[in-house]
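seq/struct pair 1
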Amino acid sequence: MKPRLTPEQVAARAALELKDGDYVNLGFGIPNLCASYLPAGIQVAFHAEHGVLGYGPLVPESEWGNADFDYMDAGMRFFRPRPGMAFCDMGQSFDMIRGHHLDATILGALEVSGAGDLANWTFGVAESGGIGGSMDLAVGAKRVIIAMEHVTKHGKPKIVEHCKYPLTAKACVDLIVSDLAVIEVGAGGLLLKELAPGWTVEEVQALTEPTLRVDEALKEIRW
């Protein structure tokens, strides 16, 4: 079986989409890892919906024994403080989201449709819980980036014609970064811009329900 990007590599590629000075919220799972993979020279103020703004990279698991329980993101991962970091109540935190003050959010997904609809929650399944702040983030952030595996653990496409899970928001996704591809979502559908090393357009299309348009400048994913 061909190698795919690791979760860390997906996070590192997604982090390349962030610009210096951005205010960014990170979702659970792979998106949380982006805090540790910012490109050199880039300063980003990371936001967590429970009331933290401006935190630093994640604490490695090897150091969890000495981590401070006051410094945890919304995904219950320990982070390092940064100068200027601030805490606030959840009401103020969601005011930042709903007021469109976040430049981007990086979220995980159960499914993304060809129209950019997002489904990233459900009930009664171990892989997901309640919707949390995702509904607000999907419509409140100026840019929505999805960082995820391309298929389910059973090998079924997660990029689908129409979402079967409950929708988080309609037509909200701008970019998908998976372990196989980088795909831009636009009015013309899905545009394949980058491929994982060693993978072909045909192989990625076979694991994607909607038809992919191929960018003339298609290239290999770098992170």
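seq/struct pair 2
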Amino acid sequence: MAPILSVTSDQLNLWLVTFLWPFVRMLALIGSAPIFSEAAVPRRVKVGLAVLLALVVTPTLEAQPAIPLMSAAGLWVLLQQVLIGAAMGFTMRMVFAMVQAAGEYVGLQMGLSFASFFDPTSGGSTMVLARLLNVLALLIFLATDGHLLLIRTLAESFHNLPITDAPLARGGWLQLVLAGGQIIGDGLMLALPLIASLLSLNLAMGILNRVSPQFSIFSVGFPITLLAGLAMLQLLLQYLAPFLEPRFGASFELIPQFLQGLRR
């Protein structure tokens, strides 16, 4: 007679937490990282991708801590994985926030502040130019295999910061805050050539209006500003990829530093 397979509650809990905790970290990253968190990606695809990655990565991990899932320590570990995964996704999302901020600055200077629509990604009204630059940044991210590097970084994160019930250090969060402070500065650097050109054009039209008051600058000012902005934008777009690639690389370097900061 064949032996009956018996599974104890401790074994079942161990199998469950061995898969669940990596899955939660991966799902949190997929729900916050660029490309994967887009509203156009169905939720089933996001969950399915997290399950697939968990099935592949879990056998390569170290032994998980023997903590019951339905306990205070188990819930704390679960919350930690959500925070870690979301923070890793937010680290990459900051680059796209910088691009969107640059689009907002340029759109205001070009007089396109009225050209906005509802963006399902941000959940609010977004300028058309900001959305255009964000889409171009997504295409550059895909062209440089950023999505594959992000998955590899996610798999390596379990070795940089193993799953444990130890409290997270504040050094990693401080690094994330300091990196987030560069969003406005980098966005201004990206938009600076176009903003400086449009500002010079506005100053020239102001001087022209003072020299020749009978010249109606208000009737031709907006078309000239818009056409000049589009011409400068065409010149700016060819430098968008060389500008973003080092920023993507810096974000990928920031993630291991952030994880190491959480261990101290």
